[in-house]
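Recap slide: Epoxyqueuosine reductase, sequence and predicted structure.
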Amino acid sequence: MIDVKRRYTEYIKTEAKRLGFMACGISKAEFLESEAPRLERWLEQNMHGEMGYMENHFDKRLDPRLLVDGAQSVISLTLNYFPEKVQEDTDSPKISKYAYGKDYHFVIKEKLKELLGSIQEHIGEVGGRAFVDSAPVLDRAWATRSGLGWIGKNSNLITKQVGSFFFIAELIIDLELEYDHPTATDHCGSCTACIDACPTQAIVEPMVVDGSKCISYFTIELKGNIPSEFEGKFDDWMFGCDVCQDVCPWNRFSKPHREPLLDPHPDLLGMNKKDWEDITEDVFREVFRKSAVKRTKYEGLKRNIKFLGKY
């Protein structure tokens, strides 16, 4: 039985690599006991702001067996999105690097479907579901359990060899496999670069981000007016924010991704300050036709640009 589990595990990890995933780790599907009080405290302190959906499905967030009948294993996968080039005009409004290309939800979901199909074809009748940041799954907790890295002080998953510019996704399946072990220690040490650099002081303590103060929350999740107390504190970010990752010493090891679907629209990186100031809905639709930026909609992006105060 051990040999069979090992063979299945090795096959899944080999397939994940073939599909372009950067890393694959596997954990036993069980209740995340240590995460429960952290999540409860974070919600009680209203650090989710107006993201009401974070209060839903509390039990499911902590127990994958409530999401997939008979769940045995959580397969955690990472996909690099670090770009080869960034926006050219350093004085223009900025977009988080993860949103340069096609919406990652679609890119990764297709890969996960192919991986699950491959598992079913090779192994037999295996039930499971794919998850990409849009369901109640604590992806960083599972990735940590699977030995894919440690949680940095900015609450991102960090891996020594590559940094943190990657997506995390899961396949939860009803097949027992060989399980990986968490990284023994974190490697942030006494570094506080991310805490010190956060423009809105959203990192309230190591590994705890007050989402209601995060620039990504304001520019993507918040639908109403951005509070005036944050004027002048956005560091020119109009969609998302990469500050806590850009300053992280481990990201000096980041290497450009090799996924063509994550490459930016040909016009995106060359747009200057005036282009953004004058952006029309037609240009928005063309440049961000299949992008995650569509989530904030044209009016939302215009609101964000205007809030930066220089446009």
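The longest helix spans residues 104-123.
The chain has two domains: 2-173, 193-248+265-307.
(End of recap.)
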